[in-house]
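Box 3.1 — From sequence to structure: ATP/GTP-binding protein
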Amino acid sequence: MDYKTSDPHTGPRREDILPATAAAAVKVVIVGGFGVGKTTLVGTVSEIRPLTTEETMTQAGVGVDDLAGIEQKIETTVAMDFGRISINEQLVLYLFGTPGQERFWFLWDGLFEGALGAVVLLDTRRLEVSYEVVGILEERGVPFVVAVNTFPGAPVHPVPELRAAMDLPESVPIFACDARDRASCRDALMTLMRYLYRLAHKTPEPQ
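Predicted structure (token representation):
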């Protein structure tokens, strides 16, 4: 018997083993306010079983966590989410989802360390949640793109309005993303990779 691939108690599962062809691994952070869909995105796109630290919300959060617009939410990330996706045979992205509640933002410093870039997940029902998130990324010099999570029934705003509301330069990509759809999540990560490539090579934004 091949214990390395057959016995779950002696090592990683076959699907969790990093591809032998992988030549580069990049850390990417999925960041956003409370309840914007970070855990959903990481779980949707990850090719391995994602690590989550979700806990049932308790009375401790009453009066502290703002549930306006997400009253049905019953669990929350208290440390981080972790997943992995292979962009191609050589490039692997390690995904770290941040906790959204402000009382856990002290953990962000460690999660940002070594990150090449970030995807800011936006909920148009609660735009104000994202303002401080963007400010933190800009303060730390972490390049980012903005993915508007398409919640059912959420207000739809033209990109120029969103850009103006968050005071973002034209170079920062803003686009729609469905955190429940794997192809959409992968496209969001590819948008970040293309943006980082342009920054690194100082190439103009495609028209």
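Summary of the box: The chain has a mean pLDDT of 80.
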